[in-house]
């Protein structure tokens, strides 16, 4: 065996220097990671959200009659009082990849704005941007497409009424009022100034196709036209927006229905290290985003129920307090047979220290935004309007809800189809037919939905035939239960929405576009519906497979 080659002294010294440099690089990397972890701590996130909520409360106070709407999921953290929620995805507004989604029409937002004269939508974004793409492009595209469809309908109504020799069957004065409404209806695209002209032109080139898709998807454009007296138009407000409080315009004076888009977080460039009388903390822009990575099981609802205690606890006690809050909520829900995820936290992360001084009484934060002397307490707002928990899908005898609200529905339904994979045994009376299908999301199991749909269809068919009312539930009431209802409607109901037990299913044309039409029908009633693409693909695969199977069986049936 040959001896190892002899290295000169210079080579040994060079190797030692390389090792020292590598060790130094690793030390710098570890230090930077440690600093980043400290900056992105749980307390910093919650304190940042609380600070930003003061700004949101200020803006909401400028137009108190307008309902506050949270864009899920990030926006839900920034106020304890929301009238409703919406779901506009930033991916639909990404540069050179803009789209109009018929799966996320958010028509309830347009209806709400029409009823109340406008609305305020809250969201936030990570540092580097003033507004998320959902506000810069997704919502403006949505508003423009709806405006174009409504204008086309109004013009058609006026044209048809003139052809028939009467003006919409109403008096001449009312007709004169209607004419300019349709003729002057603004259907142009309104984008913020920071969107380049080239991108704006590209978006405008696709508006006609998007409008045609919207008209064809089965949405009730007539109801939108009847409730919206003015076209929709977005306005943008961030923490850099200058507003003169003595010149805040009355939204009724505008010739459009305002969709006020509030980006809650301070953009990059504002000082990030902040201090209070007790300790310093690091501001995180868009802290409410990606809650799974930092919230440790805390929800927006739990946060606002304990906001003062959490903010007062300081950085060193915050982790322990959150763990206690989440555990108490888990125990409370388990006693009521409700599922609540258990969060495991490393002991090293439960930092403890001596008690910090508490606020004397109820803390009120003085706002320095917009150079005013207004004192704003984000928790001192009117209580939220009670949210609808059970959604009936028209006259189909189908309802959708989360498993949390099943007890509330037991008095009005005959059957429960529980699709919550994490649900414990529910206390269901013997008079109610019950089936539990533990369906997992497509992210966890790509075939869970498609494998469980046959049982869901059989259960629904046997009960709908007898005129029973069925509640379909899942953990959120927004995804899997919506997909199961979509399959039931497509399989057991005809194109007019009447139950036929599947007689017309073989003759149906199962296309993704037809599925979108059915989904629009569901979303008309279940306004919180947010089915994932992976789960919808499984529904489409199931329907296509079953139709092909039944078509192949037909010759055998006729031969017999």
TrEMBL record:
<feature type="domain" description="Rit1 N-terminal">
    <location>
        <begin position="35"/>
        <end position="327"/>
    </location>
</feature>
<feature type="region of interest" description="Disordered">
    <location>
        <begin position="1"/>
        <end position="23"/>
    </location>
</feature>
<dbReference type="InterPro" id="IPR033421">
    <property type="entry name" value="Rit1_DUSP-like"/>
</dbReference>
<dbReference type="GO" id="GO:0019988">
    <property type="term" value="P:charged-tRNA amino acid modification"/>
</dbReference>
<dbReference type="InterPro" id="IPR033449">
    <property type="entry name" value="Rit1_N"/>
</dbReference>
<dbReference type="Pfam" id="PF04179">
    <property type="entry name" value="Init_tRNA_PT"/>
</dbReference>
<protein>
    <recommendedName>
        <fullName>tRNA A64-2'-O-ribosylphosphate transferase</fullName>
    </recommendedName>
</protein>
<dbReference type="GO" id="GO:0043399">
    <property type="term" value="F:tRNA adenosine(64)-2'-O-ribosylphosphate transferase activity"/>
</dbReference>
<dbReference type="InterPro" id="IPR007306">
    <property type="entry name" value="Rit1"/>
</dbReference>
<dbReference type="GO" id="GO:0005737">
    <property type="term" value="C:cytoplasm"/>
</dbReference>
<feature type="compositionally biased region" description="Acidic residues">
    <location>
        <begin position="14"/>
        <end position="23"/>
    </location>
</feature>
<feature type="domain" description="Rit1 DUSP-like">
    <location>
        <begin position="434"/>
        <end position="543"/>
    </location>
</feature>
<dbReference type="InterPro" id="IPR029021">
    <property type="entry name" value="Prot-tyrosine_phosphatase-like"/>
</dbReference>
<dbReference type="Pfam" id="PF17184">
    <property type="entry name" value="Rit1_C"/>
</dbReference>
């Amino acid at each position: 065996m040959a001896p190892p080659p002899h290295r000169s002294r210079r080579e040994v010294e060079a190797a030692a220097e390389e090792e020292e440099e590598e060790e130094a690089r690793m030390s710098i990397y570890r230090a930077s990671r440690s600093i980043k972890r400290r900056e992105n701590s749980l307390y910093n996130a919650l304190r940042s959200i609380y600070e930003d909520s003061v700004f949101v409360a200020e803006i909401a106070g400028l137009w108190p009659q307008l309902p506050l709407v949270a864009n899920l999921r990030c926006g839900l953290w920034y106020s304890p009082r929301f009238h409703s929620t919406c779901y506009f995805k930033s991916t639909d507004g990404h540069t050179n990849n803009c789209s109009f989604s018929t799966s996320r029409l958010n028509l309830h937002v347009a209806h709400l704005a029409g009823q109340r004269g406008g609305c305020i939508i809250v969201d936030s974004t990570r540092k580097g941007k003033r507004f998320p793409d959902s506000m810069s492009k997704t919502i403006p595209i949505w508003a423009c497409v709806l405006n174009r469809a409504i204008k086309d309908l109004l013009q058609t109504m006026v044209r048809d009424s003139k052809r028939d020799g009467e003006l919409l069957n109403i008096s001449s004065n009312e007709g004169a009022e209607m004419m300019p409404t349709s003729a002057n209806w603004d259907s142009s695209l309104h984008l913020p100034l920071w969107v380049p002209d080239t991108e704006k032109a590209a978006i405008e080139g696709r508006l006609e196709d998007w409008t045609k898709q919207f008209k064809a998807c089965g949405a009730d454009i007539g109801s939108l036209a009847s409730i919206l007296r003015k076209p929709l138009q977005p306005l943008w407000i961030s923490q850099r927006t200058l507003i003169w409080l003595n010149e805040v315009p009355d939204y009724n004076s505008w010739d459009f229905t305002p969709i006020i888009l509030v980006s809650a977080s301070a953009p990059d460039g504002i000082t990030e290290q902040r201090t209070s009388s007790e300790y310093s903390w690091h501001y995180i822009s868009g802290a409410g985003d990606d809650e799974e990575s930092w919230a440790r099981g805390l929800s927006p609802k739990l946060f606002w129920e304990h906001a003062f205690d959490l903010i007062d606890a300081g950085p060193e006690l915050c982790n322990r307090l959150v763990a206690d809050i989440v555990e108490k909520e888990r125990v409370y829900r388990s006693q009521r047979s409700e599922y609540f995820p258990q969060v495991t936290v490393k002991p090293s992360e439960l930092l403890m220290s001596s008690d910090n001084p508490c606020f004397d009484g109820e803390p009120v934060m003085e706002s320095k935004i917009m150079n005013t002397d207004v004192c704003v307490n984000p928790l001192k707002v009117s209580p939220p309007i009670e949210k609808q928990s059970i959604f009936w899908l028209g006259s189909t005898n189908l309802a959708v809800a989360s498993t949390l609200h099943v007890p509330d529905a037991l008095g009005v339904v005959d059957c429960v189809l529980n699709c919550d994979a994490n649900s414990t045994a529910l206390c269901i009376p013997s008079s109610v037919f019950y089936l539990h299908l533990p369906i997992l999301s497509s992210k966890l199991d790509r075939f869970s939905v498609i494998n469980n749909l046959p049982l869901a269809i059989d259960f629904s068919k046997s009960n709908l035939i007898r005129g029973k009312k069925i509640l379909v539930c899942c953990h959120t009431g927004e995804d899997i239960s919506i997909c199961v209802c979509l399959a039931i409607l497509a399989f057991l109901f005809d194109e007019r929405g009447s139950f036929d037990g599947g007689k017309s299913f073989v003759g149906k044309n199962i296309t993704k576009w037809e599925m979108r039409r059915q989904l629009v029908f569901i979303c008309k009633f279940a306004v919180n519906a947010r089915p994932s693409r992976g789960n919808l693909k499984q529904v489409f695969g199931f329907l296509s497979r079953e139709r092909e199977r039944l078509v192949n069986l037909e010759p055998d049936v006729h031969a017999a």
